[in-house]
Amino acid sequence: MADADDVRRLALALPHVTEIDSDGFDFRVADKGFVWSYPERRPGKPRVIRTDIAVLYVGDEAEKQALLLGEPEVFFTTPGYDGLPLVMLRLEQVDVDRLDELVTDAWRMRAPEPLAGDLGTTGRVG
Q1: Distance in angstroms (rounded) separating the CA atoms of residues 60 and 101
Q2: What is the pLDDT of residues 61-100, one digit of tens each?
Q3: What's the start-to-end Cα distance of the chain, in Å?
Q4: CATH of the domain at 12
Q5: Does the predicted model carry a pTM greater than 0.85?
Q6: Which of 15, 16, 82, 121 has the smallest set of CB atoms within 10 Å of its CB?
Q7: Is 125 among the domain residues?
């Protein structure tokens, strides 16, 4: 079972990552977000930052749909994310190795090519 501390450790281990000050976690590479806390919005109530759920950049709609359909207990979306290449990840549903893979893949899709080469040959940090 992974948690927000695991997200932070894995994201910060990647090259050229900055953490944006927030109530949860928010990580960027080259000013592009790749993983952050889910800002849950409920009608008539203030937004709640959920650190037990990560928003991940996934690259495109096909990847998003594959994750949502293949593992609905792990990934979900909301209408506010329609048309965006983002999924929400229930952290308690993945182990740290899987989280490492997901965070690294999100970083790789957002990092400009010159920076992506700094990841090394293994592509993993954890």
Answers
A1: 17
A2: 999 999 999 999 999 999 989 999 999 999 999 999 999 9
A3: 15
A4: 3.90.1150.30
A5: yes
A6: 121
A7: no
